[in-house]
Amino acid sequence: MKHLNRRTWLKTSILGLGGITALPATLSALEDRKSKWLSKSMVKELPFNADPAVAMKARLLANENPFGPSENAIKAISNSISMGNRYGHADAAYLISLIAEKEGVKPENIMLGPGSTDLLEKTAISLCRKGGNVISADPSYLSLVNTAIAIGASWKAVPLKEDQSHDLNGMLAAIDSDTKLIYVCNPNNPMGSITDFDQVKTFCKQASMKTPVFVDEAYLEFLDNPEEKSAVNLVAEGHDVIVARTFSKIHGMAGLRIGYMVATEERIKSVTDLVRSTMGLCITSLKGAIASFQDESFIAKCRDLNKASREFTSESIHALGYQEIPSYTSFMIFPIRNDAKSFSKSMLDQGIGIRMYAIDEKPWCRVSMGTMDEMHLFVDALKVTEA
Ligand SMILES: Cc1ncc(COP(=O)(O)O)c(C=O)c1O
Predict the structure, then answer these.
(1) 3-state class of 27 per DSSP?
(2) Which residues, including other chains, have CB under 8 Å from residue 40's CB and lie 6 or more apart?
């Protein structure tokens, strides 16, 4: 339980009632970070989620994009329903060619999946099916790690640094002869934080000489100039780096299930030798993704609207004495002062769906960015919850 002690700042920030709580100064007091890699997450998702049968006024619990799908995607999907008797292989090939052109790689460097979850899991299966270990930050998004553990691998969790960025040196030091895969989530979920993009690229070059590095860029497009920040150009340079993107976030197509990953030809082949790629994809989703991928103005609009909702939410919760981890994504997370159960009940009773976490056994609320109207509802409900 050593890591609990290290996180004393959480206590400070949560117990510091009344004023704006300071962001922790001592998370770095990771004095023993180097000596132990955790194998159990310090984050637990709490089961106080909305009953799907109950209508919500604001659904802010799954980092969905309230502005999607784009009009163009909706049109393309509607027009393709009657093609549902056909497999979508030709559309998959076309979408792959568009992605390849944009990312500066060959079609052979791309694999599509029904959401990036599918690709995270398939990569874990391909690399960890004979055991070994996988390295990631903690807290982080654990789909890939959980699959790796489920099929017999172990997990080396390297705590995030004080500024909530990945401890890249710690992750490098964690590599051993049994390491099969490293997972980097940038920006990271559930913290909403980023790790310096140039440093991640340097890390990828070094680490991938020893073991494949998976960079999950699900939220990258919410940043300005995402192409400069992506690790994807490392693939064209031949590094054993796998970059995943999704149509679930900025494209607003979470329920339509499309994602892709970019990796060396050999790496893609090592996965597709085991499992099929495009067989999991619907022709409607492919048509929608093709339309959305080319709809730059929709992407720019979503980025701007997300930023506006984020700024409003941040200012509003500061006024109530909360302090979020600075977010670069379509959600933000902050420690709460009530207990998690009564907090989420109060929010749900007011029609607001959010996600609750225990981090080092302290309650946190993660709220996804909705429309401005939805964020007003969230803040109003938060005031009532506080009262
Ligand atoms: C960091 C990260 N990666 C991947 C995913 C999976 O998204 P999808 O399977 O919808 O592409 C999510 C979903 O929330 C996420 O937060």
Answers:
(1) coil
(2) 157
Ligand 1 atom nearest to CA at 63? 14
Compare 55 and 351 and report the one with higher pLDDT: 351
Query: For residue 246, which atom of ligand 1 is closest to its CA?
Result: 11
Mutational pocket test of ligand 1: of 59, 61, 117, 142, the residue with most ligand atoms within 8 Å of the beta carbon: 117
Task: Mark whether 233 and 105 lie in a shared domain.
Answer: yes
* Probe target for ligand 1 pocket from 45, 63, 141, 256, with the most ligand atoms within 8 Å of CB: 141
Asked whether 63 lines ligand 1 (CB < 6 A), one says: yes
Residue 261 is predicted with a pLDDT of 98
Are 265 and 311 found together in one domain?
no
Query: Residue 6: pLDDT band by 50, 70, 90 thresholds?
Result: very low
Query: For ligand 1, is residue 329 a contact (CB within 6 Å)?
Result: no
Helices within 104-162 (DSSP H only): 116-128, 143-150
- Which residue in 75, 106, 72, 76 sits closest to 91, CA to CA? 76
Under 8 Å between Cβ of 157 and 39: yes
Range of the domain at 248: 71-295
The SS3 assignment for 100 reads helix
80 shares a domain with 30 = no
Q: Are residues 230 and 357 in the same domain?
A: no
Determine the length of the chain. Answer: 387
Q: Whole-model pTM? A: 0.91
Determine if ligand 1 sits within 6 Å of the CB of residue 256.
Answer: no
| Number of domains comprising the chain | 2
Distance, first Cα to last Cα, the chain: 34
Distance CA 74, CA 68 (A): 9
122 alpha carbon – ligand 1 mean position (Å): 14
